[in-house]
Structures are given as structure tokens and as C-alpha cells.
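Please check our next protein.
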Amino acid sequence: SLPGKVARKLDPNLLRNLGKQVKKQVIAVTGTNGKTTTCGLLAQFLREGNHRVVHNQLGANMVPGITAALVKQSSLTGQLIADYAVLEVDEASMKGLTAEIGVQRVLVSNLFRDQLDRYGELDTTAKMIQTGIQQTEIMQGRGRLILNGDDPLVTTLGQDPALAKDNLLYFGVEQVTYQHGTTPTCPVPFTREVTQCPACQGPLYYAVLIFGHLGAYRCRQCDYQRPALAVAAEHVLVKPEASEIRLRYGEQTADITLPLPGLFNVYNLLAAAAVAYDLGLPISAITAGLRNYQSVFGRAEKKVLQGKNALIMLIKNPVGASEVLKLVGGDPKGKLLIALNDNYADGRDVSWIWDAQFEAIPTDKHVIVSGV
């Protein structure tokens, strides 16, 4: 972020001027989990469609970090050559970003409790994002709001009466099985962080519960329910290191392999695919993009360290941590290193660890604990 902070001191209008040079669209990706991976996938899909893309691939997602990323990808004379800008945006930074740069597409991945010292509770986070959306061109009917239809709180962002139905697009998961044949259930009751209907506060009922509070929900009190999905995983077979997916892409369907572990990465794929679909990319761009995709820093990143294979996963909140622990706990051979920090960038409040399902780690697993 430091180059962005310096650049903004020298020229307070720099981000605004760089944004105006993006030829087609600026796409903002926000939400709690999966932003970095979703942006990486979407950027790859766009490149497969022969588009020039700039994005903050290292995950610096506040306004100075976004400025730094665009500066880095500009010429010495301040020229930015890009068809699309794919910007990962911190939830609390949406308002600041959309006040400076014209955004035509906003994608919201999910909302889970995260960094309570910065964001507060979920309703507060949703309001931060909504304020950012209200400053975009979507509210004037130019662009699209793309939402995770499986998240009942994210779906409320599409309830603004100023938004036309034509400006909304939803994605989600229909059915999941694991390779060993079990049907997924909510791992522990307290990881379902949204239990009441956002519209009337009545109880939510689920025909299918994927994980946390994501799934096919309905309120019997006011009929608030999951909307129709334009892009969906009709069926997911979750394997230890990949997932087999029947992808519904508008009117088309295709069987694809996602070479990333964990059910949470299926949602990241669907989010990126939903934007790609909205922008008119062919489904071949999705399949080619998955073949050529390289994991980004700390997100299912594979490295060889002193001759040993290492898989690096970021955990930062209860639901995300529980899903990762469920994934790594199923590896019978691997040792597990857990490093917990409370530096500013991580969030000072680490009380979230009490709600993460560390009980998913097998009792005979070799675990090393580190961090501040």
C-alpha cells in the first residue's frame, strides 16, 4: 500500500484519473471470504477472452493498495492500458472507492463475521457495502449487481427499490456430495451466523444447507427466499484436492474440474463465472481459464519447501477457518502448522478462534502452533 499512499499525497486525483482510462468496465469484488481467489479467476477468464486486465492481485484491497496496484501497471507517463479493471475491495473501503472511481459491476461474495474490531457485526458490514453500491452507476441502470443468492444477508443488497431486476444477477450451489458419499451438513450449529429472516426476523428454513448460513433458504413467515440463480453449480463432487462440477451457465451446462481444494473455492469459481457470464464471455473462457489459473498468495498456494510439498491456506474468521480445517483434517499424511497473529493487518481481535471448529482436526494429527 505504501506506493499508493505516496502517490495519493502527490496527486489526490490519481485514482480517479486512472479509473477513467479503463476502456470497458471497472469491476469491484467485495465480501468477507474468497475475494482474492475470485478476482484471480475472473482476471484469468477475461484474459482467455483476449481482454487486457489490471487488478490488485496481491490482495491490497483498501484504497491506497488499489491505487498502488494501478500505478504499478501504468506507464511512467501515467497511461493505463486496460479493457477491464478487476478490483478486490475491502468491505469498509467500498464507500471510499466508489466515491473516486466509476464502477459498473459489483460482486458480493458472502458475509460472515470477520474482524469485529474493524467492521462490527454483519448488519454494519452490509450497510458499508450498500453505501458503496449506492454511489455506483448501477443505481442509474448502467451495470449489474452480482450477488451470492445462497447468502440470505447478501441477497438483501438486491432489495433496494431503486434497483431494477434487470440490474441483478445471482449465483449459488444446488447440490453437494463428498467423495466418501456423505451429504454436507452444517458442521456445528454456531457457525450458522444468520438464523433470522432479514426481512421480518422470522426463522429461516433450509431445503439445502451448504455450510454456515449458505444454502437454499426460505422464510415461511414472509416468503423471503433464495432468488433464481443465473449461474449455478447444479451438482458438486468434492474431492480432497479438486471438485467436479456440473456448471449451469445461463442456458448452457458443462462438466468442469476445479483444480482447487475445498467447497469454498466452488463459490469463488461461481462468483467469477457469474461476472464472466454477465459480460458475455463464452463458457470456453471458463474451462480454458481453469486450466491456466495459478493460485495467488496464501490461497490454496502450493510450494515446495526444502523438498516437502506445502499447501498454504489463509484463515481469518470462524466459518472460513472451519471449512479449511475440515479440508486439511482429511489429509492422513500431512503435518499441520497453524500460525495465529494479531497484527493490524490481521485484525487485533482474535476471539473468533473460539468459534472455529478446531475439533475437526483428528486427535492423532501432528500439529505445530506458531504466530505472535
